[in-house]
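Changelog-adjacent note: as of this version, every example in the card shows the full chain rather than a window. The one below runs 197 residues end to end.
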Amino acid sequence: MAHTVITVGREYGSGGRLIAQKAAEALGIPFFDRSIINMAAEETGLSADFIRRTEQQKTSSFLYNLYMSAHNLPVTDQVFIAESEVIRKVAGEGPCVIVGRCADYVLRRQEGVLNVFIHAPLDERIFRTKETYQVDAPDIRSYVLKQDKNRAAYYEHFTDGQWGKAQNYHLAVSSGLGLETIVRLLTDLMRDRGLGA
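Full-length structure tokens:
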């Protein structure tokens, strides 16, 4: 069966989101990233800002988990469940590109999903964070590594997989090859499978 949904996991500063967005545009299919937050907000009644702050935090306190009952899930879990429902819904509606939010795991039972992970050398990610993302942090290297650590913790908390491990994805590729090169790679791969113009 042809892949019709692309999920994109990415290291911070790798340009993975931009690659995903450009690939979706080239294929003429919907792109979902931050819009998932707004859709989950509508589902839960929580504010989009609250979800944005909550979504990449995991409940790490064992005592807190013991305190919470099965009927009263931690907010981080409620957000993950709401976002997962949105991901399954948009993936069920047709071809699309979905960035982050454990989409590869959420859609693990759906046929026709291509899971991609974008990484890049640390020095390139640091440069992109400063120059393209315009992040002003005292120690950009530490900032980039902290974002990766948060993403890994979130992924590993909610899945049974290891974030960024090549074997968990159909394709793991370095954006050090060039963002446009990776966009072409993805779009050519999808077109070979009958997706897009």
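Structural remarks: The two ends are 18 Å apart (CA to CA).
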